[in-house]
Amino acid sequence: MARSRFVPDNFTLALVVVVTLASLLPAHGQGAWFFEHLTAFAIGLLFFLHGAKLSREAILRGIAHWRLHLLVFACTFALFPVLGLVLRPVLAPLVTPELYTGVLYLCVLPATVQSAIAFTSLARGNIAAAVCSASASTMLGVLVTPILVNAIVLPSGSASTSFDAIGKIVVELVLPFVAGHLLRPWIGAWLHRRAPMVRFVDQGSILLVVYSAFSAAVIEGLWKQVPVSALAGLLVLCAVLLTVALGSTTWLARRLGFDKEDEITIVFCGSKKSLASGIPMAKVLFASGAVGAIVLPLLLFHQMQLMVCAVLAQRYARRPQATPPDKTAAPARRSA
Asked: What is the count of structural domains for the chain?
């Protein structure tokens, strides 16, 4: 029997189950250590498979797609800070001053890498451009975010910079991607015949990221740090910010004439914020007593963007496939 169109797809249902599980049974202690390393392995495997799937021409095209990268960087480091400042008179009364400082911090963070690329892959977007753009955004954010914190979040304060994130990106993302690409001549065709396996890794990595991140948030007292009214206001604030960001990136991509695959990459790379970069940076940039309130908006926004983008990626994925997944692949020969 066909599923009703009002019933969510299996992946969305799985996300709801994972969030509920993390709220009721968050991973802690050895369990948190296990899921942290399992998530790192899944992400590394994801990038290995993407490197093996993509042709050399597709990677070069992704690197050379400078218009897309400039738009993603502009949305990440200009559009978001402007939204945080412009919307402040309307949104700040919904939360405490400390929480809105966290919202401004959220606005100056780089884009997330793993989930942005996984969602781009799930939605059949330009994966090569997503890998280049999201990774470059994170590395650029190591330098740009502290500057924006001094200018916007804490104008009278001072921020220092940590370069640990660059080494983590190289080890967990770039090296597996390069290794997979180098092995493409031997395993590329085998992976092409097993597309469902690659899709399973895409979705599985997202579910692991959601569970690990939400578990950490619950352990840190996600539901206890603020009054219910302020928490409700923060949820509304994050929803407004995410809605405007998704709408703006979609409108800009279409207005500037990008095709659907590039639009998907711009939406998922230009509207998301990195929890993996944001929390370590917060520990360096802010006093220890203020970190909890600073990162709470990021925690909620991160979970919200994962849930909303998962649904959005499924909608993109259901569109008719007009071209092969690899645009650079040679057309198959017709039989005589």
From this structure: 1
